[in-house]
Task: structure prediction
Amino acid sequence: MPELTRADVAHLAGLARIAMTDDELDRMVGELGIILESVAKVQQAPIEGVEPMSHPLPLTNVNRPDAVHPSLSAAAALAGAPEVDQQRFSVPRILDEE
Amino acid sequence: MTDLIRLTADEMADALAAKDISSLELTRAHLERIAAVDGGVHAFLHVDGEGALAAARTIDERRSAGEALPRLAGVPIGVKDVMATKGLPTTCGSKILQGWVPPYDATLVTRLRQSGLPILGKLNMDEFAMGSSTEHSAYGPTHNPWDLERIPGGSGGGSAACVGSYQAPLAIGTDTGGSIRQPAAVTGTVGTKPTYGGVSRFGLVALASSLDQAGPCTRTVLDAALLHEVIGGYDPMDSTSIDAPVPPVVEAARRADVSGMRIGIVRELTGEGFQAGVQKRFDEAVEHLVDAGAEVVEVSCPSFTYALAAYYLILPSEASSNLARFDAMRYGLRVWPSDDASAEQVMAATRAAGFGDEVKRRIILGTYALSSGYYDAYYGSAQKVRRLIYDDFASAFERADVLVSPTSPTTAFRFGEKMTDPMSMYLQDIATIPANLAGVPGMSVPSGLADEDGLPAGFQILAPATRDERLYAVGAALEQRLDAAWGGPLLDRAPTLASAFSGAMGSSYADARDGEGR
Amino acid sequence: MATTTTTEVTIPFVEALAAYEPVLGLEVHVELNTATKMFCGCATEFGAEPNSQVCPVCLGLPGALPVLNEKGVESAIRIGLALGCEIAPWCRFARKNYFYPDMPKNFQTSQYDEPISHDGHLDVELEDGSTYRVEIERAHMEEDTGKSLHIGGATGRIHGATHSLVDYNRAGIPLIEIVTKPMVGAGERAPEVARAYVAALRDIVKALGVSDARMDQGSMRCDVNVSLMPKGADRFGTRSETKNVNSLRSVERAVRYEIERHAAVLASGGSVVQETRHWHEDTGVTTSGRVKSDADDYRYFPEPDLVPIAPSAELVESLRATLPENPALRRRRLQSSWGYSDLEMRDVVNAGLVETIGETVAAGASPAGARKWWSGEVARRANAAGTDVVPYAASVGVTAAHVAELEGLISSGRLNDRMARDVWDGVLAGEGTPTQVADARGLRLVEDSGAIEGAVEKVIAANPDIATKVRDGKVQAAGALIGQVMKELKGQGDAAAVRALILARLTGAPSAE
Ligand SMILES: [Zn+2]
Result:
């Protein structure tokens, strides 16, 4: 396994939307390195040809009928919002993509 | 300490049914206990005295009116702060959800309310259930009632400590890798992780969706069964809910019959790595079961040695995605790094400020395990190991009706002991994790006190999926024999906290405070 | 990331096509018209008050869990079948992880490497009557996002806004994303093929009844991928992905523009940037959006909160039995049974009148009559009112039965053509059924043969010169006499009968009667 670098961690923190100081990044590189070394053990298991299992239950086709259920009131939906305007969730400007 | 709060939930239910006591009295007694001891234990993040008393009054009125009520109606309960409770703060032990009041109830909470259990409040936990000590709660740790300098286990330390210190006879916990069973073990209480899909996850704030399961935290096996029956069963709001009746857990707990049952000792989950006193109590417990008519077989589950590694890939992967929703846009904390920050920057700053170190570690780890180029090596391999573990269980259950092991390799450790070494903390769950990966039910019952430190140790029972009743048969049989051997429940030997704290703390439940600011 | 507003260099389409072969890829999102969202019971009505159709599930509140809409799955399968796809016997949802404020969970529940249907095709008809086969890679299920209003910017656009207001009513509405395989070999017809494909897809989902497919309302949205490769090359060039091209005309224009732009970049020795681009309806150009980067790591993994979908063979076959006829094949069949020319059929199709004419013919009208009445005055009035024929007819209460009735009045000899037009005006004015209007206006052909004969005699006597011409064999001169007779009869005569009578009287040809 290639070693996890500080740049890797910075990239991952970006993907995960967590701002990190240089100190935190340094610490995280060390801690994650140790953990990764340990969890990489899964690759040594006799997994050749084994079907991955994403879920412990052998269920399929769990559906609901297309019938309307009452929604929350807009007031209840917005009650926890940090900021509300015009019955909408007010959010900071979204980074310009154009 | 009044005798009322030392009754089992089953006894309380009897007394309520006989109208020897009212739910109001019972609820008030527990609120007083909370006020007296929770300053030292810190099991609660939020106490809802008013709501609990109102619910108790309603139950009393219905009972006086002659209504036939559910068995546990009127018996108060505490709920882990990971379950959404309408009108009651739900923080998951995290700053990022400080002040969030859900507009809906988890299905499990709805069932508690419908069954008439007054909800005393919300219980402390490691942040987003990541941890084995509650030291990762953003609101300060919960203390072990046996020794306040020690951890109560985690993530559900609040739930275990709550019942262990008689602040409630019943509590709800959740178990993703041992968060019900390990706290039960280190606090001398009982905890069950039902079969995956046996209890609705709707309203359970997800840590790892394919592993999480809510269950009962109690002082006796029968109480756990009674609560299991209330919260279990099919829920159309949860696609992974099993559409079948709750297994006959109460009947099994009452019969406590293990005659002819094959008890499998898992070779990989005993011996090396387990504290001597823990191992010794385990061996004795097995002897008790043999005395009760069970047969012992040894089984091997070789893939269990990879379980911890697989778990610490699958859990962070799912968690990294589940926790993405905490982004300061719709609810919870919002941190502005600058006045004109963009949404992206506000998200990053909020998550930096709102999540603790352990949560960040696991999110980053999960992000890595799922990222392109690494998926197969990490997440993909872990999924394959998961299949091997599932298969190991399947073959073990061909030879044994239940599997047993010590619940946790050690007794309660001191605060801070493992905080700087994540891997050593992770090892606490070595024996509990396989059940979550395979979806099978598990229970921890007290096995006694370890000789070297006089602290509680736990005995873990695992059963095949949907055969939860076997846990209760074995757990109750063991409990009966051990209680007889000890001359009473193990918890009778725990320190009585009231004397230590009633002076220091106010005596009214009204003083019971929010988790904030601690 | 400043906005580039300068128009980029393009070269003329013909030149571009002389040097390069365009390769297209279209990703079309179709919003299903289910009553509820994909994973919760919230209603999906368009235009509801903001955040009034949301619940813990579609708001992504902590603890909420999805449960799949059965109708959504069935609609997805029906779309797959209509596109000739294979239906997966087992498939799953996956989480597509990325942060965006209009996405409540910061992952989209979608399908990744296990789509519910895959490997189909759609034959689209082009203007010249030829057919182009579009290969379909996959049609998968996913959920829509919320909608943002951008506040504080000069134009209401995201650029320059101080903040945004999000409405999550749309979040969680079921979408089917239909992705084509690379479309090669269309050459200069590439823009037309793109448009025809989207139009054909729209017709299919409408015929299936699974979507309103209103591009103007966003219930059908199109992303256009374009790349060019030098003629004779076998490796695709770098593609651009133009987002949200939301009308048929725009699809055609955007493809054409991107071909011209790519060609200019390549011809000048540059290389095309792999990026998303924004289409500007007003100026007819695309502008640069986000450059694709390794930040687009969506970390897909199987959605653990949903269980696999395993449609049984019985279910698939029962859904196959509900499929309507392919709209293109059906049109061809109807055209031949109605006897329309290609041009007539195309007019009928473009006016959206296929169903209406079918109903009218079924109600007893002749195909020619049905076409005449619907695409004549009604179409003219609808056009004047700025709407399509079908909604216009509905708004004034005109039905297929009315047209059939009018036709019946003509064929029974009660009305002549001119009278029928009067009657039709009355019907369109809301005066009642054709019979009621004819009665009220006293319109009826003169049936009294004595009156007709009298009028014929009178007109022949008054026009001896013309009568002589007709007698001498100039039959076309009879037209003037017919007109005068009709005038005598105040328009209520049967022109054919009058003509026959005049000819019989002057040339001895046998009368019709
Ligand atoms: Zn909803």
